[in-house]
Amino acid sequence: MSQFGKPTGFFGKSLAKGMARGHKEFYKNALKAIDPKKDDIYLEIGFGSGVFINKYLSHVSKIAGIDYSEDMVRLACSMNRTLIESGKAEFKHGNASSLPWDDNEFTVATAIEVFFFLNDAEKALNEICRVLKPGGRLIIEMSYNRDDGQDHKRIIKKMGLRLYSGKEMKKLLEKTDFKDVVVDYYQAFRVPIKGYLVPKGMVVKAIKK
After folding, report:
1. Is residue 65 part of a domain?
2. Could you tell me the pLDDT band of residue 25, with boundaries at 50, 70 and 90?
3. 3 part of a folded domain
4. Residue 181 is assigned to a structural domain of this protein
5. Residues sharing a CB contact under 8 Å with residue 32, sequence separation 6 or more, in sequence order
6. Which of 106, 153, 162, 166 is the most buried (most CB within 10 A)?
7. Average pLDDT over the chain, rounded to an integer
8. pLDDT digits (tens, 9 = 90+) for 152-167
9. Number of domains in the chain
10. Average pLDDT over residues 41-48
11. Domain of residue 173, residue span
12. For residue 2, is it within any domain?
């Protein structure tokens, strides 16, 4: 897996911090879809540096996250130390295909700039569905997708991505017991990494049956 999918070591930490700065437009659109409430019990798949939680989710009731990179877990724990020490947040190392939480635990789950890195997307969706409460929300944000009209061969090779269309996402989610699937698009004006334009980002919203 590339450093983009699993940031590791000094370079990985530097990359994660740089991506966090470059992801402001992505975060803004994801946050709008999440619409977090004070009583939300929030789960983030692939939290990276933990900056999104630190900046935008500290007011919710409970926070949990899982990341494939142990270095990102340490970085996120450092950034969100106060939340952890208060007992409000926990950050775990692991895989989205095997979540270490009980059934029906969360009211909202997100995957921001992560879903296209997952090796087994369907299995991960089944796990996310399992830990969400009935009526719980899932928000998936992807800056690169098959509907943006761009040739992403170079990015796919460099980053190890698997891109999806809105139709594919809807089919996947409906297959894994989600309903009310909505696919929206946004234009990102910021260039997160030199040479990579994001003309049409995707935000997918769904509700657990």
Report:
1. yes
2. confident
3. no
4. yes
5. none
6. 106
7. 88
8. 888 888 888 999 999 9
9. 1
10. 96
11. 9-208
12. no
